[in-house]
Write a structure and sequence with these properties.
Rossmann fold; 31% helix; alpha+beta; Dna Ligase, domain 1; globular; 20 strands
């Protein structure tokens, strides 16, 4: 192994999800290169140097990494980066997952097929290659969910309540998908539950469960907040851990943080997996909320594994604590921000750990809400338990006041739900 001065780490992606990894690596004296397209991405300034490259141009990415003597490659909190990380690792013989292992989670159609094989309960589903898909061949009652086969951040995801909506939704999803395919699924009513864990050599270890809450929007499925730990019944969580272990043993990733979403019908106790990914949850969940709520710095474990350093994963999990952490976010109507109150006050709360609201200032323009990236925040909060966490979240919402004026002169405030 090279010493800290000469080790060279490639971080694929330069967005907010990679900031923690870049800072952590550089604090250890590791030379960090980020791979990204040009743009206003924070890690470009944080890294030692940059490879400007389309993340989907994997041959070029691998060639650039080899030319620069990269020793390790890693990413987190972003679906689209995972296959490229795996491709580079496999091509250069670095620690990591194979490209096939990455695709088994990142491609929604492949993942659904694997669920069917190993007995993980998934919504009824069908792969769609064309907007001219014949809906009579799909044996599930409306409503349906249309998704791109490969995408992230809920881009192209739409609920279908009538057959008239199907073709344009499929057309949009296929165009937005990076593999030119869509997936059509039954709509399953249930409470959303996030399961975070870590896989090492096909063995799954649980980090924690979180409850998710969505903004009240008909056309878009956008999460507004997430709280660790979950209030779902322990027996439901035990069943889900069993599903995660079965899938991990089947796909056998070498190592990765794992993020999965499930829907739970709390009346019937039925469960459906929504998706899984070989990365941590976004909105700073794996980098911040997991350490706050469990005491486990899982990004440190990930970084050590990528660098080929010895790390006792079992010991890291054995030292866990039990606390609560979560994020809240809000959205604003299209227009201009005319007043902001309470921002400095919430930053002074001891239970508020991070506030990502640099774009909230008087005179700022608010674009039409269109996708997850339109959310304002997050605000990261902690508590000794779930009850205290919820009280702390309510206090932030009561304190922070943001008003927007639209083109008609009407003024509205922040929407937290």
């Amino acid at each position: 192994m090279k010493n800290n001065v000469t080790r060279r780490l490639l971080v694929v992606g330069a967005g907010i999800g990679q900031v923690h990894l870049v800072k952590k690596a550089r604090s250890q004296g590791i030379h960090v290169t980020v791979l990204t397209l040009p743009g206003p991405y924070p890690c470009i300034e944080l890294a030692d140097d940059v490879i400007y490259c389309d993340v989907f141009d994997r041959e070029k990415a691998a060639a650039e990494a080899k030319a620069r003597g990269i020793d390790a490659v890693v990413s987190d909190q972003n679906d689209l980066m995972v296959p490229t990380v795996a491709y580079i690792a496999e091509k250069l013989g670095l620690p990591g997952n194979s490209f096939a292992q990455a695709q088994s989670y990142c491609d929604k159609n492949v993942f659904r097929a694997n669920c069917d094989r190993v007995g993980v309960p998934a919504p009824k589903h069908v792969e769609v290659l064309s907007p001219d898909f014949d809906p009579s061949t799909f044996d599930a009652p409306l409503p349906w969910i249309v998704k791109p086969g490969v995408q992230q951040s809920s881009v192209g995801v739409k609920r279908i309540d009538s057959l008239d909506e199907l073709r344009p939704a499929l057309d949009f999803a296929i165009k937005k998908s990076f593999n030119g395919k869509a997936i059509l699924e039954e709509f399953f009513i249930g409470k959303e539950l996030v399961c975070e864990g870590f896989i090492e050599n096909g063995e799954f270890r649980l980090l924690g469960f979180a409850d998710c809450f969505y903004f009240d929007m008909k056309d878009m499925l956008i999460r507004g907040s997430m709280f660790f730990p979950s209030r779902v019944k322990p027996e439901i969580m035990e069943r889900i851990v069993g599903y995660e272990k079965k899938m991990a043993a089947f796909t056998r990733p070498n190592f990765s943080i794992l993020y999965s979403e499930y829907l739970v019908n709390e009346t019937t106790d039925e469960i459906r997996v929504v998706e899984s990914a070989l990365r941590g949850s976004a909105m700073y969940a794996s980098s911040h909320l997991i350490p706050y709520s469990t005491g486990i710095d899982i990004n440190d474990v990930l970084l050590k594994k990528a660098l080929g350093e010895p790390v006792d994963v079992a010991a890291a999990f054995a030292s866990r604590k039990d606390a609560a952490a979560g994020y809240i976010s809000f959205y604003l109507r299209e227009g201009t921000i005319v007043s902001v109150a309470g921002l400095d006050e919430i930053k002074s709360f001891d239970f508020v750990k991070e506030v990502f609201l640099d774009d909230i200032k008087e005179g700022a323009t608010v674009e039409k809400f269109a996708h997850k990236g339109s959310r304002k925040g997050p605000i990261l909060i902690v508590g000794k338990d779930r009850d205290e966490l919820e009280r702390n979240a309510a206090r932030v919402k009561e304190t922070l006041k943001v008003e927007v004026q639209d083109s008609t002169g009407a003024v509205s405030g922040a929407s937290w739900e």
